[in-house]
Amino acid sequence: MARAIATINLKGGVGKSTTTVALAEFMAAEFGQRVLVIDLDPQTNLTTMMIGERRWQELNDEGLTLATLFRNAVDRDPALPQFDMSKTVQRGVSSVKAVHSVDLLPSSLDLMEVQEALSYVQFNDPYSNAPVEILRNAVAEIADFYDYILIDCPPNLGIITLNGLMLADGYIIPTIPDVLSTYGIPQIQQRVQKFATRTGHRIKEIGLVVTKYRSNSTLHRATIERLQRDETIANVMPCWVPESNQIAASAEFVGYGTLKMKYGGQGQFDALRMVAEDVLMNSKVYL
Ligand SMILES: Nc1ncnc2c1ncn2[C@@H]1O[C@H](COP(=O)(O)OP(=O)(O)OP(=O)(O)O)[C@@H](O)[C@H]1O
Ligand SMILES: [Mg+2]
């Protein structure tokens, strides 16, 4: 059975999607894991990073995204396109030749509108878990094919994100080590805990992943030290992802031969490999 890990932070732009893509690729190519990535963000950043905008548009036109899954749950009209898991999962999606075993459940801009309708369903029946179990029920059919399921969440705790949490066994919090990016961490922990208590579904905090680290920044070093001392944080992953132009450029959908070519060999590859190793090790202990 796969271990499912959500990537979450209420702060936007801290590297959630970039970290999720890199983790998936390193887990697959460097550690031999079969990985499914789920993009729950209507911004579709992760989806277009992995398959490009043109392919996403084709899939979206055919209703082969997660928007169809959630739409079916709010509108049971059989005349509407029905979610088809086997056609929606995109297999072997990495832009890196050396990565073979990463699959993707693509997101859609239409998720935004579907999310509103789904929230309305939940509002009308606040004690029902059904609106947050849609993703988990759908993924159950394919979960056994994978070692890891990585869920990239939007920077909010809306009902689509809650679907991700309901599937997740644990979560990681990517954060830039600065004041504003770390400000909301206690809120995330509390809200996830509250959700776990309400639904009876246990979700373990795996740890914080430091992103966009600048070695010449005294603020970054001081923030990391503060986080390491903070007893309310389960674990600060010991390897920090450096801020790097090449990691930023990896968002563009172009082909690469190896992970080193994609992310850079001046410390980026080693840092991302170690983060993946830490997440694997911690998830085996905690999940
Ligand atoms: N280590 C890094 N070094 C430099 N740039 C980075 C790094 N990680 C991410 N970025 C860049 O920072 C921006 C935000 O990254 P990303 O989209 O991964 O963040 P996010 O937390 O998923 O954002 P959102 O909240 O909008 O979903 C992107 O332009 C990305 O390319
Ligand atoms: Mg993102």
Based on Cα principal axes, name the global outline: globular
Structural class: alpha/beta
Helix-strand sequence: EHEHHHEHHEHEHHEHHHH
The CATH class name reads Alpha Beta
Ligand set: adenosine-5'-triphosphate, magnesium ion
Tell me what portion of residues adopts beta-strand conformation: 5-15%
CATH topology: Rossmann fold
Major beta sheet summary: 6 strands, parallel
Give the CA-CA distance, first to last residue: 11 Å
Number of strands: 6
Strand order of the largest sheet: 3-2-4-1-5-6
Cα-atom radius of gyration: 18 Å
Pfam families: AAA_31
Protein name: ParA family protein
Domain AAA: 3-202
Characterize the structure shown.
By secondary structure, the chain is α/β, with parallel strands linked by helices. It has a single domain, classed as 3-Layer(aba) Sandwich (Rossmann fold). 47% of the residues lie in helices and 11% in strands. It has 13 helices and six strands. The longest helix is centred in the last third of the chain and has 19 residues, at 268-286. It is globular. Bound molecules: adenosine-5'-triphosphate and magnesium ion (MG). Magnesium ion is lined by residues 16-17, 41, 45, 152.
